[in-house]
Design a protein that fits this description.
56% of the residues lie in helices and 4% in strands. The relative contact order is 0.17. Helix 1 (2-30) packs across helix 5 (86-98). It has one domain: Cytochrome Bc1 Complex, Chain D, domain 2, CATH 1.10.760.10. With 105 residues, it is mostly helical. It is globular and about 25 Å long. The protein has a two-stranded antiparallel sheet with strand order 1-2. The protein has five helices and two strands, in the order αββαααα. It has helices at 2-30, 45-48, 54-57, 60-68, 86-98, and strands spanning 36-37, 40-41.
């Protein structure tokens, strides 16, 4: 039983590392069409704007609340509400928090 508990602990640490590493994939699938990072963006990137300093402008709680319901934070928000799984929310917020100006770190 002890081995199982220790093994699960190691798995949880490694899984945490994996979700952080996979965050740009969530960005590519869910955000890139309307936003850009480091000058690279999708077809509507000018409308959605650059996210290069999103992590410097807002904290994690604000970003999570905004992404789930943009109008809750900005009355004039053009961004639609996003529907993501819990791991995707964690990944995208963690990724945006790395964006402190210029490009992803």
């Amino acid at each position: 039983m002890k081995r199982l508990v220790v093994g699960m602990g190691v798995f949880m640490v490694l899984a945490g590392t994996a979700w952080a590493a996979g965050a740009p994939d969530v960005y590519d699938k869910k955000c890139k069409a309307c936003h850009s990072v480091g000058g690279a963006g999708g077809p509507m990137a000018k409308m959605g704007g650059a996210l290069d300093d999103a992590g410097a402008k807002h904290d994690e709680a604000w970003l999570r609340a905004y992404l789930k319901d943009p109008k809750s934070k900005m009355d004039n928000a053009k961004m639609p509400k996003l529907s993501l799984s819990d791991p995707e929310w964690d990944q995208i917020v963690a990724y945006l928090m790395t964006l402190k100006g210029g490009a992803a770190k």
